[in-house]
Write a structure and sequence with these properties.
This protein is of the alpha/beta class. The protein has three domains: 3-87, Winged helix-like DNA-binding domain superfamily/Winged helix DNA-binding domain (Arc Repressor Mutant, subunit A); 94-164 and 270-304, D-Maltodextrin-Binding Protein, domain 2, CATH 3.40.190.10; 168-259, D-Maltodextrin-Binding Protein, domain 2 (3-Layer(aba) Sandwich), CATH 3.40.190.10. Helices cover 44% and strands 21% of the residues. 26% of the residues are buried.
Protein backbone atom coordinates (compact mmCIF):
# COMPACT_ATOMS: atom_id res chain seq x y z
CA UNK A 1 0.00 0.00 0.00
CA UNK A 2 1.23 3.47 -0.85
CA UNK A 3 2.37 4.93 2.47
CA UNK A 4 1.02 8.32 1.47
CA UNK A 5 -2.46 6.88 2.19
CA UNK A 6 -1.55 7.12 5.87
CA UNK A 7 -2.26 10.85 5.38
CA UNK A 8 -6.03 10.30 5.00
CA UNK A 9 -6.87 12.17 8.21
CA UNK A 10 -4.66 15.05 7.14
CA UNK A 11 -6.29 15.01 3.70
CA UNK A 12 -9.70 15.48 5.33
CA UNK A 13 -8.38 18.59 7.07
CA UNK A 14 -6.73 19.73 3.84
CA UNK A 15 -10.01 19.46 1.89
CA UNK A 16 -11.81 21.59 4.49
CA UNK A 17 -9.02 24.20 4.69
CA UNK A 18 -8.83 24.39 0.89
CA UNK A 19 -12.60 24.76 0.53
CA UNK A 20 -12.77 27.57 3.09
CA UNK A 21 -9.33 29.02 2.25
CA UNK A 22 -8.94 29.29 6.01
CA UNK A 23 -7.35 27.15 8.71
CA UNK A 24 -9.62 28.65 11.39
CA UNK A 25 -12.84 27.86 9.49
CA UNK A 26 -11.59 24.34 8.82
CA UNK A 27 -10.92 23.97 12.54
CA UNK A 28 -14.48 25.06 13.35
CA UNK A 29 -15.92 22.59 10.87
CA UNK A 30 -13.80 19.69 12.15
CA UNK A 31 -14.11 20.59 15.84
CA UNK A 32 -10.35 20.83 16.37
CA UNK A 33 -8.01 23.72 17.11
CA UNK A 34 -6.50 25.94 14.43
CA UNK A 35 -3.06 24.83 15.64
CA UNK A 36 -4.02 21.21 14.97
CA UNK A 37 -5.04 22.02 11.39
CA UNK A 38 -1.82 23.97 10.86
CA UNK A 39 0.24 21.04 12.14
CA UNK A 40 -1.64 18.59 9.90
CA UNK A 41 -0.95 20.77 6.87
CA UNK A 42 2.77 20.86 7.69
CA UNK A 43 2.79 17.07 8.03
CA UNK A 44 1.01 16.67 4.70
CA UNK A 45 3.34 19.07 2.89
CA UNK A 46 6.37 17.27 4.33
CA UNK A 47 5.01 13.88 3.29
CA UNK A 48 4.31 15.06 -0.27
CA UNK A 49 7.42 17.21 -0.56
CA UNK A 50 5.36 20.05 -1.97
CA UNK A 51 3.93 23.30 -0.63
CA UNK A 52 0.12 23.34 -0.72
CA UNK A 53 -0.81 26.76 0.70
CA UNK A 54 0.49 30.30 0.46
CA UNK A 55 -0.74 32.97 2.88
CA UNK A 56 -2.37 36.06 1.37
CA UNK A 57 -3.49 38.35 4.19
CA UNK A 58 -5.94 36.35 6.28
CA UNK A 59 -6.59 33.83 3.52
CA UNK A 60 -4.67 30.64 2.85
CA UNK A 61 -4.57 30.38 -0.94
CA UNK A 62 -3.80 27.16 -2.75
CA UNK A 63 -0.60 26.78 -4.70
CA UNK A 64 -0.65 25.05 -8.09
CA UNK A 65 0.13 21.76 -6.34
CA UNK A 66 -2.58 22.49 -3.78
CA UNK A 67 -5.17 23.08 -6.53
CA UNK A 68 -4.37 19.70 -8.07
CA UNK A 69 -4.61 17.91 -4.73
CA UNK A 70 -7.85 19.74 -3.84
CA UNK A 71 -9.56 18.55 -7.02
CA UNK A 72 -8.36 15.00 -6.38
CA UNK A 73 -9.53 14.95 -2.74
CA UNK A 74 -12.96 16.32 -3.61
CA UNK A 75 -13.46 13.65 -6.28
CA UNK A 76 -12.27 10.96 -3.87
CA UNK A 77 -14.50 12.05 -0.98
CA UNK A 78 -17.53 12.42 -3.28
CA UNK A 79 -16.93 8.88 -4.56
CA UNK A 80 -16.75 7.63 -0.98
CA UNK A 81 -20.01 9.37 -0.04
CA UNK A 82 -21.78 7.88 -3.06
CA UNK A 83 -20.38 4.47 -2.09
CA UNK A 84 -21.62 4.85 1.50
CA UNK A 85 -25.07 5.86 0.27
CA UNK A 86 -25.25 3.00 -2.22
CA UNK A 87 -24.74 0.34 0.45
CA UNK A 88 -27.04 1.91 3.02
CA UNK A 89 -30.58 0.59 2.72
CA UNK A 90 -32.28 3.72 3.95
CA UNK A 91 -35.87 3.51 5.11
CA UNK A 92 -38.16 6.31 3.98
CA UNK A 93 -39.31 6.64 7.58
CA UNK A 94 -37.35 9.17 9.59
CA UNK A 95 -36.80 12.88 10.10
CA UNK A 96 -36.15 15.76 7.70
CA UNK A 97 -35.11 19.24 8.83
CA UNK A 98 -36.36 22.07 6.61
CA UNK A 99 -35.50 25.76 6.76
CA UNK A 100 -36.88 28.86 5.08
CA UNK A 101 -37.84 32.43 5.93
CA UNK A 102 -40.20 33.23 8.77
CA UNK A 103 -42.83 34.50 6.32
CA UNK A 104 -42.69 31.53 3.94
CA UNK A 105 -42.78 28.89 6.68
CA UNK A 106 -45.71 30.49 8.52
CA UNK A 107 -47.78 31.59 5.50
CA UNK A 108 -46.99 28.94 2.87
CA UNK A 109 -45.43 25.82 4.33
CA UNK A 110 -47.25 25.33 7.63
CA UNK A 111 -50.83 25.73 6.25
CA UNK A 112 -50.04 22.99 3.70
CA UNK A 113 -47.84 20.65 5.73
CA UNK A 114 -50.77 18.64 7.09
CA UNK A 115 -51.38 17.31 3.57
CA UNK A 116 -47.86 15.87 3.45
CA UNK A 117 -48.29 14.32 6.90
CA UNK A 118 -51.49 12.61 5.75
CA UNK A 119 -49.72 11.12 2.72
CA UNK A 120 -46.47 10.26 4.51
CA UNK A 121 -47.06 9.84 8.26
CA UNK A 122 -43.79 7.90 8.47
CA UNK A 123 -41.77 11.09 7.78
CA UNK A 124 -41.32 13.56 10.62
CA UNK A 125 -40.69 17.15 9.51
CA UNK A 126 -38.76 19.61 11.67
CA UNK A 127 -39.09 23.23 10.51
CA UNK A 128 -36.47 25.88 11.26
CA UNK A 129 -37.82 29.36 10.46
CA UNK A 130 -35.06 31.92 10.06
CA UNK A 131 -34.45 35.10 8.08
CA UNK A 132 -30.72 34.36 8.23
CA UNK A 133 -28.99 32.08 5.72
CA UNK A 134 -28.61 28.87 7.68
CA UNK A 135 -25.55 26.71 7.04
CA UNK A 136 -27.00 23.43 5.82
CA UNK A 137 -23.99 21.33 6.82
CA UNK A 138 -23.26 22.89 10.20
CA UNK A 139 -26.94 23.14 11.11
CA UNK A 140 -27.73 19.54 10.10
CA UNK A 141 -30.41 20.89 7.74
CA UNK A 142 -31.60 18.66 4.90
CA UNK A 143 -33.42 21.19 2.71
CA UNK A 144 -33.51 24.98 2.46
CA UNK A 145 -36.17 26.90 0.54
CA UNK A 146 -34.55 30.17 -0.42
CA UNK A 147 -35.50 33.27 -2.37
CA UNK A 148 -33.15 35.30 -4.54
CA UNK A 149 -33.63 38.10 -7.04
CA UNK A 150 -30.85 36.69 -9.25
CA UNK A 151 -30.10 33.28 -10.68
CA UNK A 152 -27.88 30.93 -8.68
CA UNK A 153 -25.58 28.27 -10.07
CA UNK A 154 -24.92 24.97 -8.29
CA UNK A 155 -21.77 24.92 -6.24
CA UNK A 156 -19.46 22.01 -5.48
CA UNK A 157 -21.30 21.07 -2.30
CA UNK A 158 -24.97 21.88 -2.76
CA UNK A 159 -27.61 21.63 -5.47
CA UNK A 160 -29.63 24.80 -6.13
CA UNK A 161 -32.80 23.72 -7.93
CA UNK A 162 -34.89 26.52 -9.43
CA UNK A 163 -38.56 25.89 -8.65
CA UNK A 164 -40.64 28.95 -9.40
CA UNK A 165 -40.63 32.67 -10.04
CA UNK A 166 -42.68 34.59 -7.49
CA UNK A 167 -43.97 37.90 -8.80
CA UNK A 168 -44.69 40.72 -6.34
CA UNK A 169 -47.88 42.83 -6.29
CA UNK A 170 -49.46 45.40 -3.97
CA UNK A 171 -52.14 43.57 -1.96
CA UNK A 172 -54.91 44.84 0.31
CA UNK A 173 -57.97 43.46 2.09
CA UNK A 174 -61.27 43.05 0.28
CA UNK A 175 -62.92 45.44 2.74
CA UNK A 176 -60.37 48.18 2.01
CA UNK A 177 -60.80 47.75 -1.75
CA UNK A 178 -64.58 48.07 -1.38
CA UNK A 179 -64.26 51.12 0.85
CA UNK A 180 -61.91 53.07 -1.43
CA UNK A 181 -62.93 51.69 -4.85
CA UNK A 182 -59.42 52.09 -6.25
CA UNK A 183 -59.36 53.32 -9.86
CA UNK A 184 -55.70 54.18 -10.55
CA UNK A 185 -52.36 53.07 -9.06
CA UNK A 186 -51.86 56.50 -7.48
CA UNK A 187 -54.92 55.82 -5.30
CA UNK A 188 -52.80 53.61 -3.02
CA UNK A 189 -51.36 56.86 -1.65
CA UNK A 190 -54.71 57.43 0.09
CA UNK A 191 -53.87 54.51 2.41
CA UNK A 192 -51.25 53.33 4.82
CA UNK A 193 -48.37 51.52 3.12
CA UNK A 194 -46.59 48.70 4.91
CA UNK A 195 -42.92 48.14 4.08
CA UNK A 196 -40.18 45.79 5.27
CA UNK A 197 -37.32 46.97 7.45
CA UNK A 198 -34.81 45.29 5.10
CA UNK A 199 -36.73 45.40 1.85
CA UNK A 200 -33.76 45.32 -0.53
CA UNK A 201 -34.47 45.96 -4.21
CA UNK A 202 -38.14 44.97 -4.01
CA UNK A 203 -39.39 48.25 -2.60
CA UNK A 204 -42.24 50.70 -3.06
CA UNK A 205 -40.31 53.35 -5.08
CA UNK A 206 -39.51 50.79 -7.78
CA UNK A 207 -43.18 49.77 -8.02
CA UNK A 208 -44.30 53.41 -8.11
CA UNK A 209 -41.93 54.02 -11.02
CA UNK A 210 -43.28 50.95 -12.86
CA UNK A 211 -46.90 52.02 -12.24
CA UNK A 212 -46.26 55.65 -13.21
CA UNK A 213 -47.13 57.00 -9.75
CA UNK A 214 -45.60 60.44 -9.12
CA UNK A 215 -45.08 62.59 -6.02
CA UNK A 216 -45.00 59.55 -3.75
CA UNK A 217 -42.03 61.05 -1.87
CA UNK A 218 -44.46 63.19 0.15
CA UNK A 219 -46.47 60.20 1.35
CA UNK A 220 -46.37 60.04 5.16
CA UNK A 221 -48.56 57.05 6.06
CA UNK A 222 -45.92 54.36 6.49
CA UNK A 223 -45.71 51.31 8.73
CA UNK A 224 -42.42 49.40 8.87
CA UNK A 225 -42.21 45.75 9.95
CA UNK A 226 -39.43 43.16 10.04
CA UNK A 227 -41.04 40.20 8.23
CA UNK A 228 -43.46 39.55 5.40
CA UNK A 229 -45.91 37.62 7.59
CA UNK A 230 -46.21 40.67 9.87
CA UNK A 231 -46.90 42.86 6.83
CA UNK A 232 -49.66 40.57 5.56
CA UNK A 233 -51.14 40.30 9.05
CA UNK A 234 -51.49 44.08 9.12
CA UNK A 235 -53.01 44.21 5.65
CA UNK A 236 -55.47 41.38 6.37
CA UNK A 237 -56.87 43.51 9.18
CA UNK A 238 -57.42 46.39 6.74
CA UNK A 239 -54.22 48.34 7.39
CA UNK A 240 -53.50 49.55 3.86
CA UNK A 241 -51.29 47.89 1.23
CA UNK A 242 -48.14 45.85 1.27
CA UNK A 243 -45.94 44.46 -1.49
CA UNK A 244 -46.24 40.68 -1.31
CA UNK A 245 -45.06 37.76 -3.39
CA UNK A 246 -47.43 35.20 -4.88
CA UNK A 247 -46.07 32.55 -2.54
CA UNK A 248 -47.38 34.50 0.45
CA UNK A 249 -50.70 35.89 -0.72
CA UNK A 250 -52.06 33.06 -2.94
CA UNK A 251 -54.01 31.31 -0.17
CA UNK A 252 -55.65 34.59 0.88
CA UNK A 253 -56.70 35.32 -2.69
CA UNK A 254 -58.40 31.90 -2.88
CA UNK A 255 -60.24 32.47 0.43
CA UNK A 256 -61.38 35.95 -0.62
CA UNK A 257 -59.49 37.79 2.13
CA UNK A 258 -57.07 39.71 -0.09
CA UNK A 259 -57.26 41.28 -3.52
CA UNK A 260 -54.76 42.68 -6.03
CA UNK A 261 -56.51 45.85 -7.29
CA UNK A 262 -53.83 46.61 -9.89
CA UNK A 263 -52.38 43.92 -12.13
CA UNK A 264 -48.97 45.61 -12.16
CA UNK A 265 -46.04 43.44 -11.16
CA UNK A 266 -43.05 44.81 -9.33
CA UNK A 267 -40.18 45.03 -11.87
CA UNK A 268 -38.12 42.62 -9.73
CA UNK A 269 -39.30 39.14 -8.78
CA UNK A 270 -38.20 36.47 -6.31
CA UNK A 271 -36.72 33.24 -7.65
CA UNK A 272 -37.51 30.26 -5.44
CA UNK A 273 -34.84 27.59 -4.99
CA UNK A 274 -34.58 24.24 -3.25
CA UNK A 275 -31.09 23.85 -1.79
CA UNK A 276 -29.90 20.40 -0.72
CA UNK A 277 -27.06 17.90 -0.80
CA UNK A 278 -27.59 15.58 -3.76
CA UNK A 279 -25.48 12.95 -1.98
CA UNK A 280 -27.46 13.09 1.25
CA UNK A 281 -27.91 9.79 3.07
CA UNK A 282 -31.57 10.88 3.48
CA UNK A 283 -32.03 11.21 -0.29
CA UNK A 284 -34.97 8.78 -0.48
CA UNK A 285 -37.20 10.72 1.93
CA UNK A 286 -35.80 14.04 0.65
CA UNK A 287 -36.96 13.12 -2.87
CA UNK A 288 -40.46 12.36 -1.55
CA UNK A 289 -40.71 15.69 0.26
CA UNK A 290 -39.36 17.69 -2.70
CA UNK A 291 -41.85 15.96 -5.04
CA UNK A 292 -44.67 16.95 -2.68
CA UNK A 293 -43.43 20.56 -2.53
CA UNK A 294 -43.48 20.70 -6.33
CA UNK A 295 -47.07 19.40 -6.37
CA UNK A 296 -48.09 22.13 -3.95
CA UNK A 297 -46.27 24.75 -6.05
CA UNK A 298 -48.29 23.69 -9.11
CA UNK A 299 -51.53 23.99 -7.12
CA UNK A 300 -50.46 27.44 -5.98
CA UNK A 301 -49.83 28.55 -9.57
CA UNK A 302 -53.34 27.42 -10.58
CA UNK A 303 -54.86 29.45 -7.75
CA UNK A 304 -52.92 32.59 -8.68
CA UNK A 305 -53.67 32.31 -12.40
Amino acid sequence: MDKRLKQLNNLRSFESAARHQSYSKAAEELFVTQAAVSQQMRQLETSLGSRLFARNGRQMQLTQSGEKLYMATQQAFNSLIKGFNSIQTEEVAGTLTITSTQAFTSLWLMPRLYRFSIKHPEVKIKVVASNCIEDLRQGQIDLAIRFKTTEIANDEEMTYEFVAEDHVYPACSVQLAQEYDFKEPKDVLNCWLVSLENQGSIDWPAWFAKAGVKNYQNHNKWTEVSTGDMALSAVLSGHGFTLASQALFSQYISTGQLVIPFDIKHPISFKRYFVYDANSAKKARLDIFIAWLKEETLLEKKIVS
